[in-house]
Amino acid sequence: MAMMRYAEALNAALREEMQADPSVFLFGEDIGRYGGVFKVTKGLMEEFGETRVRDTPISEQALTAMAVTAAMTGTRPVLEIMYADFVPLTLDALVNQASIYNYIWNGQVKMPFVLRTQGGGGAGAGAQHSKALDSMLAHIPGIKVVAPSTPADAKGMLKAAIRDDQPVVFLEHKLLYNTRGEVPDGDETVPLGKAATMREGSDISIFATSKMVVEALKAADLLAADGVSAEIVDLRSLRPLDVNAIVASISKTHHAVVVNEGWRFCGYAAELSATIMDHAFDELDAPVARATLPDMPIPYSEPLETAMLPSAEKIRTAALKTLK
Amino acid sequence: MKNTPSVEQHLEIYRRMLLVRHLEESLGALHKEGRTRGPIHRCDGQEAVGVAATAVLETGDKVATTHRGHAVYIGKGMAVHPVVAEIFGRATGACGGRAGHMLVADAEKGVIGGNAIVGAGIPAATGMALSMQILGTGNVAMCVFGDGAAQTGICHEAMNMAGLWKLPVVFVLEHNQFGLTVPSEVQSPVEDLSIRAAGYAMPAEIVDGNDAVAVYRAVSTMVERARRGEGPGMVECKTYRVEGFSTSDMGGYQKPEDIAAWKARDPLIVSRKALLGEVGEAQLAGIEAAAKAEVDEAFEAALSDPMPEFSLDEACNPYSEAH
Predict the structure, then answer these.
(1) Peptide bond into B113 cis (omega under 30)
(2) Quick one: angle between helices B121-135 and A60-72, nearest 10?
(3) What are the Cα distances from residue A106, in Å, to A50, A159, B8, B69?
């Protein structure tokens, strides 16, 4: 095990996969000479050269479409889209191209590409650089969407994503890059589609991904002081979703809070809530509570932004309300 | 002239153009009888572009095309039957009936593939060229796209990167004068769209798109330089869409005199005239009869082929647990 920052763990995953497989290449804005806006690709252009690590023009729409067909013709592209807020520029390539071909072409092609991006608020980046658009991405069949919360999962899941033959959107968070954690040495992958229980509890289950797992763990401390034992489940993967892990936890606690940093209406938390209704309705003792962003643009000024974002305190409030 | 196709090559181009023509006319007839499903976008009168451009390519080269791609499918080497069966949604179709006529692909033949989002074929071919450059395969990617697609933003993004990185991709602009029902002069301030190639540091040539030999020559030159690693090129093929946008097009916006003038210069007429100076009438008549018979047989077989069965759990279904 080694202590690493989240960004360093991602860098290690990219380096190891590029060393192991010459068909893996990286492209995106600022990723080469500069090493990435969040330094995830630092040193990789020096190590692997400008053919396999490419600085690109600001052309998200074409870059994503090119990743799709490059992946169908023998390479394993890893595309960095600097902010999740820019994902809407990539949507034709995801919705009308990447998601359809494996099925529509009757299994003739594989599509092993990874779209890395980072979203989320709390850094004063304003309405066009702070969003979590998880549900927009997870809505698309044929594409996997994952959002690890720890450095160990960041490394193991990125390695697994690069090796996956299906498109994977890999969601990072700008406020996780500097978080630290133990990361296993060597060629360890973490399977996509499997949740992890981060803290055991008996009164209520809290389901989250990415930075919201950090908030949920803080909420569990607050709830412990309230006399409530909260179980924290890091879903890790939004699609495919580990429904079994959700049902297992609710069968124990009979109460649930679903947390997502995206908008509430038609959001990922709504899908989680419906999934719980489909699979664990009889286990519930109370309605599922949601902690999400309100349905508004994200403002710049610190008190305005802070007031909007889902937080440990808001998760606690939601939990106490549904436990009443 | 340099890169002129041999008589044998031209005969094969002529034969494939005939296959496409019979395919389109048969589809038109069946549509009138109400026996087709969904919109069908015919390329009658434009066959020289798709067939002669792809005749230059090797099997390992790849082509992305448009929603009007029948000439590319046949030109790049697909047999008629799997294409027709796909158009009729049969289990025996090139994609098992899942794709329909606009999205046909045959990965082994390098048809990757039809695309019904106008402009999307341009980055598709560019991405394949990027893959070829990284892997050092020595292959070339081609995009056959229309004057409508040339007006999309993604066209600029993709061509800029193709020029910047000297990617092995050839852009074949099938300029048929219409984007949907709107004439090109109402969509672009310039008549010759390939003047834009200069902005991407790529050479371009304008040719008569109804002359298969001219298309073949110009595309060959661009494919050769792309294969040598000298970067992308563009060929603008001037042609005309004599049929409507699709089978649902009510018409009324094309000048009858324009249609008549272009039909008089039909690519089949142009090639037949050129070939008649090289081979006898009997040989051409034989090729023509055989092409018609081949298409008729493909339709007869496809129309009696089985329909596919829906399943949620096939391995390539993204909804399945297998994914």
Answers:
(1) yes
(2) 60
(3) 35, 27, 35, 19
Q: How far apart are CA A34 and CA A45, in angstroms?
A: 9
Interface A-B: count of C-beta contacts within 8 A: 133
Task: Report yes or no on B238 lying in a domain.
Answer: yes
Cα distance between residue B55 and residue B12, in whole Å? 9
Predicted TM-score (pTM) of this structure: 0.96
Q: What is the pLDDT of residues B171-228, one digit of tens each?
A: 999 999 999 999 999 999 999 999 999 999 999 999 999 999 999 999 999 999 999 9
Contact B212, B15 (CB under 8 A): no
Residues in chain B: 323
Closest CA to B178 of B117, B123, B258: B258
Q: Which of residues 114-133 of A touch B (CB under 8 A)?
A: none
- Statement to judge: residues A22 and A77 lie in one domain: yes
pLDDT digits (tens, 9 = 90+) for A2-54: 999 999 999 999 999 999 999 999 999 999 999 999 999 999 999 999 999 99
Q: Give the whole-angstrom CA distance, residue A66 versus residue B141.
A: 12
- Tens-digit pLDDT profile for residues A125-147: 999 999 999 999 999 999 999 99
A88 touching B (Cβ < 8 Å):
no
- The catalytic position among A8, A16, A129, A173 is A129
Per the structure, the complete domain to which residue A316 belongs is given by: 196-323
* Count of CA atoms in the C-beta half-sphere (13 A) of A160: 21
Nearest-10 crossing angle of helices A6-20, A151-163: 30
Counted domains in chain B: 1
Largest interatomic CA distance in chain B: 61
- On whether both A126 and A177 belong to a single domain, the answer is yes
ipTM: 0.96
Same domain for A41 and A179, yes or no, is yes
Provide Rg for chain B, Cα atoms.
19
Report the DSSP pairing between strands B62-64 and B141-146: parallel
